Amino acid sequence: MDIFFPLGWFAAWLAGALGIVPGTSLWDAVTFFVADTLKIFLLLAAIIFVVSWLRTYLPPERIRKLLARQHKYVANVLAALLGVFTPFCTCSAIPLFLGFVEAGVPLGATFSFLVASPMVNEVALVLLFSLFGWRIALLYLASGLAIAVLSGILIGALRLERLVAGFVKKAEVIDAAALPKLARKDRLDYAKAYTLDILKNVWLYVLVGVGVGAWIHGYVPVDFLARYAGADKWYAVPFAVLIGIPLYSNAAGVIPLVSVLTEKGVAMGTTLAFMMAVTGLSLPEFMILKKVMKTRLLLIFAAIVGAGIILTGILFNALL
Amino acid sequence: MKRKIQVLGSGCPSCKRLYEMTKLAAQELGLDADVEYVTDVQRILAMGLMSSPVLAVDGKPIIVGFVPGSVEKVKELLKALPPVGR
Asked: What ipTM was predicted for this assembly?
């Protein structure tokens, strides 16, 4: 039972009102576009609002305190889970990274957080849920968390602390009491402001992404892409990851687009790997993080996460 | 005594937006204050904070980690401050 069926009716009504003949490619494209964008925007607004409201209870300053006290593997898992709830704007990358390391959060756990936070976030999950269903959204969530935890553990085991030395001064753990007190109204205000901000940033990408997607949906034959990017093509996953790296800011537009590519024959694992690369490996984030860590550490980080994403993609191509 | 209003951030667009909003809010309220834009991330960390942007008055953070929806909200927060010298 699809609770979004009224949107389909509305889309059909609108297309009819515009004088489009049912059953044509144009009809397909227009109804798909209208129903999908409405559904995505409704879900985005609702989920981002709830998540950002919850987040006011878990600011990074408090997360840092939680993580600094944990056993190392527990810290990795916890860091990845908390990363899901925490927004990660590239602006905050440096204070976040330095703040964790200064407070004595293990380097591995810090990286688990750095991987999970941008890769597994509510915007990506909402888009995946609306366009692929809850199974794929869950699969993305689980594999994103697994990559974050494992690459964090690996980086921790490599003992690379010296590659951040010089940037970080050890400081005592400062209490989160410095944070301004928030009343319930402040939390709701924050959630509202944050939701509007995100929607303002992504609406155009979603429209363009779904728009191009709708066009492909209506006009490009099914399985057209299977011969270039089907599950039997070994190079599809690494190639998808490589083109995903510079596409960070377009994550909101990329997901609607790839959903249609999947329909036209791109294998599911390839699609998931592509999305993970778009969100998890971002060039602008690397440029900023370069200021606080040696290039070697950054490359090791990118290589480990990249390899994790490629393996996940290949695994899902084989399984799904 | 003059108030010291600071906007701290890493120089990203949203930090700059908060700085512009704060300047406008202080001006519209006719506050006797300097509004300063600080891009040294270590200063944020020294306050025990990790998210940018931060709006601090006399060294005390009043907004952490987000840009309010309107200048009105910033004015509201600045108006709610206790008088100078307490």
From this structure: 0.74
